[in-house]
Specification:
3 helices, Immunoglobulin-like, single chain, six-stranded mixed β-sheet, alpha/beta, 37% strand, five-stranded mixed β-sheet
């Protein structure tokens, strides 16, 4: 084999390896989040049927960047007359007849550290130490003087932590 053919074969191999696609996400769309923080826009909009519904950036779905630990996730409510409360972001407990998987409180709090809320922001820190999908419910409440019921949306946070407890050590060898 000539040097030119060998160089072409090596280049083709690298090109093919570079075209590998990411593993598909378990949801239609999502927002990629990386250290140190990720901001998600939340709006209350008309549902077209005379009511209201939540409209959340990327449907509230979040994919954590590989090896990005301790990332703050901040939901920003942009509609006046509505507010976040302490129970606005909770693990999805699952309900009869739903297709969304439930997330146990143990799994949730092993990865998610609540940071608190203000009327228009809610924030948590994601430790991203385990590769896991965490289903959660986002709830917005009408504030004083606004008619209506609380509105919820079920979404997922997908942790993409690198697997292997000794990975850092092995990479240094």
């Amino acid at each position: 084999m000539t040097t030119t053919k060998l160089a072409i074969a090596i280049a083709a191999t690298f090109l093919a390896a570079g075209c590998a696609t990411r593993e598909t996400a378990p949801y239609a769309q999502g927002k990629d989040c990386f250290y140190p923080a990720c901001s998600i826009a939340v709006d209350v909009v008309d549902d077209g049927k005379g009511g209201k519904k939540l409209q959340v950036e990327a449907d509230g779905n979040v994919r954590m960047g590989t090896r990005h630990r301790l990332v703050a996730i901040v939901w920003n409510l942009r509609t006046p007359g509505y507010e976040f409360r302490g129970s606005s972001v909770l693990p999805h407990a699952g309900r009869v007849g739903e297709s969304s998987p439930a997330t146990s409180q143990g799994d949730w709090y092993a990865q998610i550290i609540p940071l608190g809320n203000w009327y228009d922001t809610y924030s948590v820190t994601n430790q991203n130490t385990e590769r896991v999908a965490l289903s959660y419910d986002l709830t917005v409440y009408p504030s004083f003087g606004t008619a209506g019921q609380p509105m919820s949306l079920n979404s997922v946070i997908v942790n993409d932590a690198h697997q292997g407890i000794n990975h850092g050590y092995l990479m240094m060898k």
